[in-house]
C-alpha cells in the first residue's frame, strides 16, 4: 500500500530521517586555521560533485535585530574572509550597512556536512569589485546593471525592456560596474564544522578567534 495515500506530505515530514554513516572528524587531522580547514572541506565537496558547492545561506539583521536570510554564491575566500557579490542597495545591502554582523552557512548534504561562519562584513575594494564584475559574462553584467534588487517591479516585461535597452546602449562598449553593486567580505570570528554521524552522535568542532588566535573546541551535537 502506498503510505502517501493515507497521510499527507505535511503529516509525513517529521518521519524523513537518514542515518549519517560517512566520515567522522578526527581532531588530529584538523588544520590550525579554519580557513585552511574550510579549503579542505570545500575541495572534498567539489570532488564529491556536490551541486553548487559554493552556494551558502547568508543571514543578516536590521540594526534592531530583525533577521533575514537568503542563498548566495561564495566568490572567493582567503585569510581576510569570505567574499560574495550583490547589490549594495538590496535588502541585505541595506541591512549590512546598518549592522555589519552576519552569518553564512554551507550545507553539503551529499557529505552530511555543514559549515557555519559568523563575523563582520565590510565592502571589498572598488578595484576588486571592478575586476570581478568585468570577469562575469556580459549578460550577467547587464543583469546587474538593470536590476534594482529587492525593489518592487511592475512586471517581468518591464525588467526585460530595461535589459534590452541596456543591451542596445552598451552594444560593442564596456559595461560600467554600477556603483551600487559590488563585493562584501565576511571576516570570521567563529567557524563551526559539523559532520553528521550515526545515531545523531554528530561531530561539531568550533574555531573561535580569541586574542588573534584560533581556539578549537568540540561541542555536544
Ligand atoms: C543558488 C542561488 C545563488 C544566489 N546567488 C546570489 C548572489 O551571489 N548574489 C545575489 O545578490 N543574489 C543571489 N541569489 C539571490 C538571493 O538569494 C536573493 O534573492 C537576492 O540577493 C535578494 O536578496 P535580499 O532582498 O535579501 O537582498 C542567489 C539565489 C540562489 C537560489
Task: Write a compact overview of the structure shown.
This protein is an alpha+beta fold and 221 residues long. The protein is built from seven helices and nine strands.
Give the tags.
single chain, binds flavin mononucleotide, alpha+beta, 33% strand, 221 residues, 9 strands, nine-stranded antiparallel sheet, Pnp Oxidase, Chain A
Examine the secondary-structure arrangement and name the CATH architecture of the domain at 18-131 and 179-218.
Answer: Roll
Give the beta-strand count.
9
Binned strand content: 25-35%
Q: What count of helical segments does DSSP give? A: 7
Q: Name the shape in a single word.
A: globular
* Helix/strand order, N-terminal first: HHHEEEEHEEHHHEEE
Query: Gap between N and C termini, in Å?
Result: 37 Å
Fold-level CATH name of the domain at 18-131 and 179-218: Pnp Oxidase, Chain A
Radius of gyration over all CA atoms, rounded: 21 Å
Low-confidence runs of at least 5 consecutive residues: none
Major sheet: 9 strands, antiparallel
User: What ligands does this structure carry?
Assistant: flavin mononucleotide
Class computed from helices, strands and strand pairing: alpha+beta
CATH C-level class of the domain at 18-131 and 179-218 is: Mainly Beta
Helix content: 25-40%
Amino acid at each position: 500500500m502506498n503510505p502517501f495515500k493515507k497521510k499527507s506530505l505535511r503529516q509525513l515530514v517529521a518521519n524523513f530521517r537518514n542515518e549519517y554513516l560517512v566520515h567522522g572528524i578526527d581532531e588530529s587531522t584538523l588544520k590550525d586555521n579554519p580557513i585552511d580547514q574550510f579549503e579542505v572541506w570545500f575541495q572534498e565537496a567539489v570532488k564529491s560533485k556536490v551541486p553548487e558547492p559554493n552556494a551558502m545561506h547568508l543571514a543578516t539583521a536590521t540594526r534592531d535585530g530583525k533577521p533575514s536570510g537568503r542563498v548566495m554564491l561564495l566568490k572567493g575566500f582567503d585569510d581576510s574572509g569570505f567574499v560574495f557579490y550583490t547589490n549594495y542597495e538590496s535588502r541585505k545591502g541595506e541591512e549590512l550597512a546598518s549592522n555589519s554582523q552576519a552569518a553564512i552557512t554551507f550545507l553539503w548534504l551529499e557529505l552530511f556536512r555543514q559549515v557555519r561562519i559568523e563575523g563582520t562584513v565590510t565592502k571589498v575594494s572598488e578595484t576588486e569589485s571592478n575586476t570581478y564584475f568585468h570577469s562575469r559574462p556580459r549578460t550577467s553584467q547587464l543583469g546587474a546593471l538593470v536590476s534594482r534588487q529587492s525593489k518592487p517591479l511592475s512586471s517581468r516585461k518591464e525588467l526585460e525592456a530595461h535589459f534590452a535597452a541596456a543591451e542596445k546602449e552598451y552594444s560593442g562598449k564596456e559595461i560600467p560596474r554600477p556603483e551600487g553593486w559590488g563585493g562584501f567580505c565576511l571576516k570570521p570570528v567563529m567557524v563551526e564544522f559539523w559532520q553528521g554521524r550515526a545515531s545523531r552522535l554528530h561531530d561539531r568542532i568550533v574555531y573561535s578567534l580569541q586574542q588573534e588566535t584560533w581556539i578549537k573546541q568540540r561541542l555536544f551535537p
